[in-house]
Amino acid sequence: MRGEGVKNTAIQLLLAVNALVMLFPIALMVLSAFKSNAEIFDSPFTLPETLDFSNLLHVWSDTEFVQYLLNSLVITTSAVLLILLAGTLAAYALARYTFPLNASLYLFFLAGLMVPLKLAVIPLFVELDTIGLLDTRLGLVLIYVAMGLPSGVFIMTGFLRNLPGELEEAARIEGASEGRILAQIMVPLARPALVIVAIQNAVPIWNDFFFPLVFITTDARKTLPQGLTVFMGEYSTDWGVLFAGLMLAALPITLVYILLSKQFIAGMTQGAVK
Amino acid sequence: MAQVSIRKVVKEYEGGVQAVKGIDLEIADHEFVVLVGPSGCGKSTTLRMVAGLEEISGGEIWIGGDVVNDVPPRDRDIAMVFQNYALYPHMSVFENMAFGLKLRKFPKDEIKRRVDEAAKMLDIAMLLDRKPKALSGGQRQRVAMGRAIVRNPKVFLFDEPLSNLDAKLRVQMRTEIKKVHQLVPTTTVYVTHDQVEAMTLADRVVVMNHGVIEQVGPPQELYHNPKTRFVAGFIGSPAMNFLPVRVVNEGGLAVQLANGVRLAVPPQRVDRYAPFTGKEMTLGLRPEHLTEIKDQEKPNVVRFDATVDVLEPMGMETMVHFFIDGQPVCARIDPNTPAAPREILPLAADMNNMHLIENDSGKVV
After folding, report:
1. Collapsed DSSP state (helix, strand, coil) of residue B305
2. Which residue of A has its CA nearest to B78?
3. pLDDT at A117
4. d(CA B315, CA A49)
5. Which of B68, B97, B99, B114 to mutate to test the interface with A (most CBs of A within 10 A)?
6. Strand duo B66-67 + B58-63: pairing
7. Neighbours of A11 (CB within 10 A)
8. Residue B293's pLDDT is what?
């Protein structure tokens, strides 16, 4: 009993330290967003002297921030939606139907997990150039969809396979078409898995710096992480403004995560308890 | 309402394994037929072929005058209740029951009328807004039945619907199902491995084993006149006792146990069993035909002594387990009979109810 208590305290302590380590840079970012450059260097770890919104206002109105934000929103949302759509359809077929080459097709998707897409950046560049999608948002979306599908199909197939077959059979007997079974029975039940796939893809896509840097050159099509580099000057950097931009950039995905965290955790622990 | 015909139906899986080996079964309109047998006997596969959930490898299935071999499940006008209920977890009880009707584009007020009516009949009217998660096992079972009833289909299919319930609820729901069938006499095919369920529910019981039908008949007929050793052993609880015997004719036809004891064959059976004189056979006798000695004995009752191994008092009766020639035997005695383990108990075997079984074919002669 006592050993158990000590063990629990130790675990709690470890988690608390971990939380601190994780939260510290975020807190620093938020604090600095309300400070002037001078104040950041004078007293980096204190609360801001006055609640100064000028950095935020400056980022919002005097830079291309809003345009970058919109680009990021459009690209991330469409990529995630496409991954969910294509991934669910593919996973449903793989999980619930037997057909020749089912296993091979599944392995083909899984093989994508082993290929770091960044290694293929030169062929991708050539390919996008050939089909005329270089320096377009659509080109970027397609790359992200290709990147997200393997893990999406993997997660969704595993989940859909575990749903009881009787539900599908019951619906089939009652007169539901295959499409309706998928849309009205399977997808609602697969929501935890859909949330996992969505978050697991949305975060890296939102944060991605590499692909926009390589494929996007026009300023009006840049995404947030890429756009924020504009704030880093060659000779001087307005850190307050940069942090304000970073804070605003991190906000949407943090909110999404908080809103969906309950379902996310539910999906991760599915099957752990009855 | 419709009759169902199963004609020479075969189910063969990849690799040539036959789960169902060419069975024939005619099910009349309004009839309640129970398919019973041990697991792997092909009863569920047969039901799933009727439902259209399993492809038919050979033969024909007719529902209401049409061959349905290539008709998809939704066009067969059937409703099925599954062992795990298969309620849609994200829909309320009402939505679960209304799902099939909505798909068939019934008007809203008609859907509501039908669901309310079924809910009232099944006593789940107060649960219509709940999700399946918030229901007990018995309530879920009722909802699953309600979902089948509202559609008013030609045929009801039940796939071991009571197996997930505890013993008490199972008995209660068994009665409910029978009551529902009396109210809504739809043709019903019911699959179970529980012979008591089969006996209590069925108009006719179909006993299956290894992919073939062993016997079809009303419960009483199966009980009293089993055609095979399998049916004899499967129907009835505790199971029928089987003892190896030789048919002898020395001063009257009799069956002789391995220990030399002779049990005379009743006169009315002599003609029937005489052709088997000299053969090694199996004697089948139900526990209720092995009883304590009664004051007024009927003719053709043989007395013998048994050394009691185990006693199982059930209240209304007591089961006595003992051995004859090393074979376990069970007798059913009056609970007031004095008996104790390891002591000698005089018993009476009612040979009027004997069964004689051919060893090679397993047929009851």
Report:
1. strand
2. A173
3. 83
4. 87
5. B99
6. antiparallel
7. 10
8. 87
- pLDDT of the residue at A98: 86
| Distances A110 to A82, A159, A192, B148 between C-alpha atoms, Å | 18, 15, 21, 41
- To the question of pTM greater than 0.90 for the whole model, the response is no
Residues 175-204 of A with CB under 8 A from B: 175-176, 180, 185, 188-189
In a domain, A29, yes or no: no
Average pLDDT, rounded, for chain B: 91
User: Position B259: which residue type?
Assistant: N
In a domain, A260, yes or no: yes
- A81-138 pLDDT, tens digit per residue, is 999 999 999 999 999 888 889 999 999 999 988 888 888 899 999 999 999 999 999 9
Average pLDDT, integer, range A73-78: 96
| DSSP symbol at B298 | P
To probe the interface with A, which of B44, B45, B68, B88 has the most A CB atoms within 10 Å?
A: B88
* B102 contacts chain A (CB < 8 A): no
Shortest CA distance to A205 belongs to which of A84, A104, A42?
Answer: A84
């000779």: which residue's tokens?
A: A235
Span B195-207, pLDDT tens digits: 899 999 999 999 9
User: How far off is chain B from A164, nearest CA to CA, in Å?
Assistant: 8
Nearest CA-CA partner of A133 in A70, A78, A215, A59: A215
The domain total for chain A is 1
Mutation target to probe the B interface, by most B beta carbons within 10 A, among A174, A181, A189 is A174
Cβ contact (<8 Å) for B80 and A176?
no
Domain carrying residue A140: 63-269
Say what the ipTM of the complex is. 0.81
Nearest-Cα residue of chain B relative to residue A176: B103
Inter-chain CB proximity A172 and B82 less than 8 Å: no
Interface of B with A in 225-254 (CB under 8 A): none
Question: Does B86 contact A164 at a Cβ distance shorter than 8 Å?
Answer: yes
Q: Which residues of A touch B156 (CB under 8 A)?
A: none
What CATH number should be reported for the domain holding residue A102? 1.10.3720.10
What local confidence, expressed as pLDDT, does residue A274 receive?
Answer: 34
**Band (A191; pLDDT cuts 50, 70, 90):** confident
B260: DSSP letter:
S
Query: Mind listing the pLDDT tens digit for each residue in B113-149?
Result: 999 999 998 889 999 999 998 998 889 999 999 999 9
Flag whether A109 is in a domain: yes
Q: Has residue A251 been placed in a domain?
A: yes
